[in-house]
What we know:
Elements: E1 4-8, H1 12-24, E2 31-35, H2 38-47, E3 52-56, H3 64-74, E4 79-84, H4 90-99, E5 102-105, H5 110-121, E6 143-155, E7 158-171, E8 175-180, E9 189-193, E10 199-210, E11 213-220
Helix pairs in contact: 2-3, 3-4
Amino acid sequence: xxxxxxxxxxxxxxxxxxxxxxxxVCGFKGEVRTVVNGREAIxxxxxxxxxxxxxxxxLPDINGLIVMKEIKEVSPKTKVVIMTASFLTxxxxxxIEDNASLLxxxxxxxxxxxxxxxxVSSGEQHLSDNVSDDTKKPQRPHIIKTFNCSLSILDKLGMxxxxxxxxxxxxxxAGMSIRLNHxxxxxxxxxxxxxxxxxxxxxxxSTRMTDDNYSVGIEFI
Length: 221
């Protein structure tokens, strides 16, 4: 059984999106805590027991692989999941295989995350074979930039068209995270056009940030 998960990443959209996905997509009903750097991660693990730690390699203060070793030393039972959009050398992959239970490239496949959560919840012990081979080749990193674009949203009320400017998008080959002043729900269909190639996706999660601002995760189809 999993009671507590820690997410370590310096990107707020990753923290928010993965937290929501763990509950809504993976069915996790326990506590999720988030921190933005390695020192906070080590402190959290020292003070509290975590079943799983999702850990980014590229942190602003300490290399994630060093943090991984510190976490395993402080809390050997914590299962570490390494997240990265970077190319890994053979030495780095060997270090990860020796210390982590799972390696997933960014943008990550939520079905892989869910399968891992299910295995840990069922008490399966042999998880090292779940280290992904996808990081053997360079991964295209996600991009954070400003777009001027139009959105077409198909929700339960019908089709809504929005023209957007100066909104922050976190875009990858698999999907994107956006900031909207319009609430969306999981399952809504979204099409957007920034003047290049139109894309269509399905809303996977939506989080209210302020009274009139929402963070939305979209998976391309």
